[in-house]
Predict the structure of Carnitine O-palmitoyltransferase 1, muscle isoform.
Amino acid sequence: MAEARQAADFPPWLPSDGAQARLGCSMLQEIYLCSLRSWRRNLGRFWVRSTAGWGGQHHYLRGVVAAAVFASCLWGALIFTLHVALRLLLSYHGWLLESHGTMSSPTKTWLALVRIFSGRHPMLFSYQRSLPRQPVPSVQDTVCKYLESVRPVLSDEDFDWTAGMAQEFLKLQASLLQWYLWLKSWWASNYVTDWWEEFVYLRSRNSLMVNSNYYLMDFLYVTPTPLQAARAGNAVHALLLYRHRLTRQEIPPTMLMGMRPLCSAQYEKIFNTTRVPGLEKDSLCHLPDSRHVAVFHRGRFFRVGTHSPNGLLSPRALEQQFQRILDDPSPAYPHEEHLAALTAAPRGMWAQVRELVKARAAAALEAVEGAAFFVSLDSEPGGLTREDPAVSLDAYAHRLLAGHGHDRWYDKSFTLIVFSNGKLGLSMEHSWADCPISGHMWEFTLATECFHLGYSADGHCKGQPDPTLPWPERLQWDLPNQVYPSISLALRGAKTLAGNIDCHVFPFSHFGKSFIKHCHFSSDSFIQVALQLAYFRDRGHFCLTYESAMTRLFLEGRTETVRSCTKEACNFVKAMEDKEKTASQCLTLFRMAVDKHQTLLKAAMTGQGIDRHLFALYIVSQFLHLQSPFLAQVHSEQWKLSTSQIPVQQAHLFDVHNYPDYVSSGGGFGPADDDGYGVSYIFMGDDTVTFHIASKKSSTKTDSHRLGQHIEDALLDVAALFQARQHLKHRFGRAGEECLRYRQGFPSRKTAPTASTDL
């Protein structure tokens, strides 16, 4: 979600250890080949020694062993053949390019074969060895698509200059760089992912807060219990249940459109993972297991065990432990309260200070970094309030994204935030995975803690406390004096960064996914084209637009960029602003813009996008010390509008028709540019789209609330093209700045069901 800023800010040069990186790749290959040769030699030696010692009296036994070995080899060959066949089948993308709602005979045959070769009950990682590798697109096609994407935002003079650089690049450097990239694609699991993670994320020296992290919200209108400790107990227990299922691979693999498995590699580092700062490059430290969580409350750190000799602690036992922390009156130690601000500092600074902290407080640092995840028990309420829903919802988003600058451990894979009124939220570190992975976990957590685990009538977790449990361990930070100035500096920087972010969240309830589908459009493409209209009205011009699309159709795929500001979208926007254009003409242009966006989205998902290929070519040019003005120009582009849809992946966990309030309201991220916007959206049920908008208060060109109003107006104006505006106005009554129930104080229509048979 927040990757656009990271992509724009990664250094335009490689550090001095570039040669070491190349050597590391060679060594990894050599280690792999040596291991393979060693395995073959040891197996051969074992076979020779075993058979050589047997005499004629063991002739029959040798025959049995030989038959067993032959059968094993035959079985292995069969399994290998099945994997190869499945990989070839999964390389077919024709089904994705077909019109919505139709399926050709080749696709039906393909689907039947995939189901046959996949087995009846695939596990989470069942498809990993069968997923195809992400292809390297033609460099000529990529450059051509790039020029097409920038044409709407460049003047004729600037476009001619850019096209000239592109042609020079194709003549002089493209073939060489493409050859190296093609060579890497055969060696690596994915030709772009490892570089993307290293140079876009781990080598970034900026603060993680706002620049890289993103947040996920709780239910918008419902809080299952107002008891903070109880909500924390159920939520932590649900998260650990998810980890248990993840470890046992009991989570079914995600299937795109119910047909095509997606890569599951990113699930491996959800838990027990910390981003460790380095002077030039961070690293991800992932532990195989962790049996505690680190908890922060009123400036103090605690270690809370999550298991007993009998297994995972019950929700009621966890609630008891969290309540003990809340009732603990002891004050924070000097500078302990603001210690976590260091994780929001520039990475080089934190790397230096961390060595001092580790030298004097190694046990406490290890307890935090080695935890399953981080828990922040906030002393303030969060979420939507009846008294001032607009202000409270914006403040809720801001608290999840930035907090106070010192109450989140931004290095952890995620921080679970529990507010004093029982509201929840997540703050996610971005380098280890993308939003759909954390979103899948969050959907399970909310459904499990609310519907499956549930709460008693008095709001506590079900079950009985365990008085024999030892009290949570208070972590001791014996910090050296040299650390204090750094903590103060980091805190000032974090507060400045947090104070500069302008968050705005609003649920658009005039219509949603059902209306868009009734108009026979893709929901995502509908919103993306409307966003172009809203941005043009907000700023008076067009800009490069970043939309994140997944490439998990391929092994270890992560994301690709969809450049949503197309010529077709611009033509539609201009027509909408032209009073002489009729609704019919505008609607025709709208259909063309939506079709173009769908084409770009499908190309990105099938490995034929633009930006990851150009990024990888740029990295190769830096390794080879080749100066390319064209690639440098691509690298310097700024994304004024960064967008992302948060997918709902487990709709079966929520009964949105009978209990429409019990769905997550999505999440958001910071802007990719200091004068830009970050916009995310989620389709809540059939009739609501919730938008999350962020911008910088320091910018005189942006205003999150202003853009929000433009988005609402743009969506209604697009709906009017279908002669539906009067119907929408009559149904939802737009009488003010806020939407229906958001404006009326969000009364809950129904209570939660007592249990869910899907869990």
Notes: The longest strand covers residues 688-696. The CA atoms of residues 275 and 284 lie 5 Å apart. The chain has three domains: 58-131, 211-254+267-499, 502-606+638-647+655-744.
